[in-house]
Amino acid sequence: MIDIDDQGAIRVVTLDRPDRRNALTPAGLEALETAVADPPAPVVYLRGAGEAFSAGADLDSVAALAGDADADVEAFVRRGQRTADAIETSPAVVVAGIDGAARGGGVELALACDLRIATPHATFAEPGVTFGLFGAWGGTVRLPETVGLGDALDISLSGRVIDSEEARRIGLVSRIVEEPRAVVEEIAENDPAALEAVKACLRGRENKAEREDSEVAAFEALVETHAETLRDLGGSS
Q1: Number of domains within the chain
Q2: Which stretches of the chain are assigned E, i.e. beta strand?
Q3: In a domain, 66, yes or no
Q4: pLDDT tens digits, residue range 141-182?
Q5: What is the CA 187 to chain-centroid distance, rounded?
Q6: Is position 222 within any domain?
Q7: Range of the domain at 16
Q8: Residue 42 included in any domain
């Protein structure tokens, strides 16, 4: 599910589940956290296999929460939050190369990266509101920080799909290129200690923990409210 390829100054981490649009189970999230937490390279290139970056949370995993009265919804949300936090706090510069669809949790993991580089074919959406949920892997914290409150509300409340050009306009991605790997190699040419120092100085985490707690509580309530719909979604995926 998570493929790791160390190539000198670059660790390539591939979400490798193309038949499910690289959707992530709790085990996949744990493997991704391990891959980015303390890599041997100063730059991590996060990409998706096949025609998507990531569809986000595996719907069967979400449906299982709704179908089990003893399911630990908080543990599921915390698992995703820890993985996103590991990306953000990794000593390496983490670059998301987004080619194809990024949806829900896929957008949230990309938001945790230091840079998001899109191809012209990239698209983005937070579709959770269409079936009674929302992005709870730190998305309500990072999205408004990245694009501003107005655009964050538009994307999150509408569930609409935006293309790479709009994503660039609102600041969701830094560049649109044919091959994101070229940008990764450009960054990897720089001094590793300087890269780590710049990232540590620029990225702050004030008040994130409190806001992530609010995500957990709201997500738990929605899973309980929409249990039947979620079970149907899981069975159809």
Answers
A1: 1
A2: 2-7, 10-15, 43-48, 52-54, 93-98, 101-103, 115-118, 123-125, 162-163, 175-176
A3: yes
A4: 899 999 999 999 999 999 999 999 999 999 999 999 999 999
A5: 21
A6: yes
A7: 2-179+190-236
A8: yes
Closest CA to 208 of 104, 124, 84: 84
Q: What is the pLDDT of residues 67-98, one digit of tens each?
A: 565 567 788 888 899 999 999 999 999 999 99
Which residues, listed in sequence order, are joined to residue 12 by a DSSP beta bridge?
5, 45
pTM for the complete prediction? 0.85
- State the pLDDT confidence band at 66, using cuts at 50, 70 and 90: low
Q: Would you say residue 223 lies in a domain? A: yes
User: Residue 64: what pLDDT?
Assistant: 74
Q: Extract the tokens encoding 94.
A: 């983490």
Domain at 128, CATH number: 3.90.226.10
Q: Which amino acid is at 8?
A: G
Under 8 Å CB-to-CB from 124, ≥6 apart: which residues?
Answer: 98, 101, 102, 103, 107, 155, 161, 162, 167, 172
